[in-house]
Specification:
single chain, mainly alpha
Length: 355
């Protein structure tokens, strides 16, 4: 538990202090955000705001985890290393996307095909090792089962389908956070809630782990306490970054931050076992992603008609005249409610007395 607190504290201080210096450095280099001309006109005032703040988040998370390991004198686990690989790997793709935008002074960075190829490569490496590396008890970081709470099904996915499922989870979550990151502090604040929830879930799974005590309903999850350390580090990093990212934002996380955070969400969903629980814990990201799918699908089927004034959903409310801060706070409330629902589902066995 001490390592969890240390990781969160180091990461929080890393973004809280480090982002200030990153803003100065990025402004000096002229690495500012470019704004799409077809977006809400109010966003034009954000032109030139420093981007690529996700770099500070990534560095703070890695520093938080490394600091916790050094302070407690414990070795890194395979699960945590794989999760950090996924986190940093997708962040690197996002950084390349952001870099192309600022270097070429255009609102489009990597082509969608190139971005998908990069996500697929990182996802394949992650999946390959996550289903092959066993501990002394024969447990791998992820399993062939899919569930809401735990691996309770008697059937499992074939390896090929499992890898495809991992890739879908990673692409869906990373792009979901990317779509949500359109208003100051919106994605960052929602991410704090999601990773805070995964911190609690992993601590609970560590206390009820079959490797510690073989009791009915124990969790056969690998390295849950080490995953809690990573989750706490990401929670702290996002919380500290929010100081600078909330309206009016002094810096944006960019694709560097959104892709890395989305990938980490998918990684936690897969490694904690209740993969489908991410639909609730990341409910806001799911809703916003669905708004884009609905908008595009209806536009094509109806010959040019729209369901929303603009997608993603947050921009629809902007065009309705809602203030940006109002949208962000109300969407945070929605995110909080979906996270509570997800935690309720996870803890249902304990609350209901089934344990």
């Amino acid at each position: 538990m001490l390592a969890v607190l240390i990781a969160g504290a180091i990461a929080l201080l890393g973004t809280l202090i480090g982002t200030k210096f990153a803003i100065k450095a990025l402004v000096a280099k002229g690495y500012g955000q470019l704004i799409r001309d077809d977006g809400p006109t109010t966003h034009q005032t954000k032109r030139g705001t420093p981007t690529m703040g996700g770099l500070v988040i990534m560095l703070s998370v890695v520093a938080g985890y490394a600091g916790a390991k050094l302070f407690t004198g414990t070795d890194p686990s395979a699960s945590a290393v794989l999760l950090l690989f996924l986190f940093v790997g997708l962040g690197a793709i996002g950084f390349l996307d952001d870099w192309i935008k600022v270097a070429k002074q255009r609102s489009l960075g990597l082509r969608s095909k190139a971005k998908l190829i990069g996500q697929t490569i990182v996802g394949l490496v992650f999946a390959f090792f996550a289903i092959r590396i066993e501990n002394d008890n024969g447990i791998t970081p992820i399993t062939h089962h899919i569930s809401f709470v735990r691996d309770m099904t008697s059937w499992s996915l074939p390896t090929v389908l499992l890898i495809l499922w991992v890739l879908v989870m990673i692409a869906g979550a990373s792009n979901g956070v990317n779509l949500t990151d359109g208003l100051d502090g919106l994605a960052t604040g929602a991410a704090v809630m999601v990773f805070g929830a995964y911190t609690l879930i992993n601590i609970w799974q560590s206390n009820q782990n079959c490797a510690r005590e073989l009791v009915p309903k124990c969790y056969e999850v690998r390295d849950p306490l080490d995953l809690a350390i990573v989750a706490a580090a990401i929670t702290g990093a996002c919380f500290g970054f929010l100081w600078w990212n909330t309206a009016p934002a002094k810096i944006f996380m960019g694709d560097t931050g959104s892709l890395s955070l989305g990938g980490a969400m998918a990684g936690f969903a897969l490694m904690t076992r209740p993969e489908l629980l991410l639909v609730f814990l990341g409910g806001l990201f799911v809703i916003i992603t669905l708004s884009v799918i609905i908008q595009v699908g209806y536009f094509k089927l109806s010959g040019g008609k729209r369901v929303f004034r603009m997608a993603p959903l947050q921009h629809h409310f902007e065009l309705l005249g809602w203030a940006e801060v109002t949208i962000v706070v109300r969407f945070w409330i929605i995110s909080g409610l979906t996270v509570i629902a997800g935690m309720g589902i996870f803890y249902w066995e304990w609350v209901s007395g089934a344990l």
